[in-house]
Design a protein that fits this description.
The chain is built from ten helices and 14 strands. It is of the alpha+beta class.
Length: 288
Amino acid sequence: MTVDGDMRAVFDALGLPPDARVDARVPKKLLIEQGAPTPADKRAIQDGIDELQWFAACKPATIGVPSFVDDTREYLEIAVVGCAFRSNANGKPANAPRLIELIHRAIPYPVLLISSDDQGVTISASHKRRAQNDAGRTVTEAVTAAIALRPHTADAIEAAFLQGLALAEQQHTDLYILYDSEGVERSFAEQLEKNDAVKVYAKLPGWFKVPTPLGSYNPDWAILVQIDGQERVYFVVETKGSLFADDLREHEAAKIACGKAHFETLAGDEKRVRYIPATKLDDVLSNA
């Protein structure tokens, strides 16, 4: 696979040690067998993926970050994978959002996926957890993504985002914390830090859960915003990559709806506590 310049720039920005490099081609056949549940998905992989390459394997032995294991997750490795999408024989662009989801599903490890098409480079991530009723199976959670990046013509915000991807800039407690700190949420945190309307914000820990009839839900952020010097509104925000805003799974969307109802009940008539999906800070401020 000939890695284009923008994909190479994103990978280089990670600052991984040489021992983490794999640089091995992944056959599309393997992807089809592991991650294509329908005939349409198989066609999408055949037509829309040029080649798939395993760039690096981030393990305790290769990057010096401990593994993570609890009752829900087992993070022994983070795979860094690259994929170039292509148009089919009729010139129709690849269905990038669906292909990205299929790649994350097919690989049993948490994946930092660097993909490219005519729109630019996308960086995506998706946490994995054990299936509740099948001990040998993993479940892919919601995919978050930063889309249409062009590292060689990046503006100031994109440049800061890319600089923040470096391994040396991440939390190193364990592989779960490392994976959680990469990608879209970091960009969101930088927006929070720079906006004067945001007085206090906190990344919520894993034990902070919203009970819903469909199971517990773990929001990402608690934010205190001051508007016009008077009104203070608390937000609990679940950040979702905008790439998949129109493609939330029904179960996931239902949990978000339950979370909104939960906080509306807590807030009462004053509506001082709100729960909203957001991909950027403007989504939060527009609801203030």
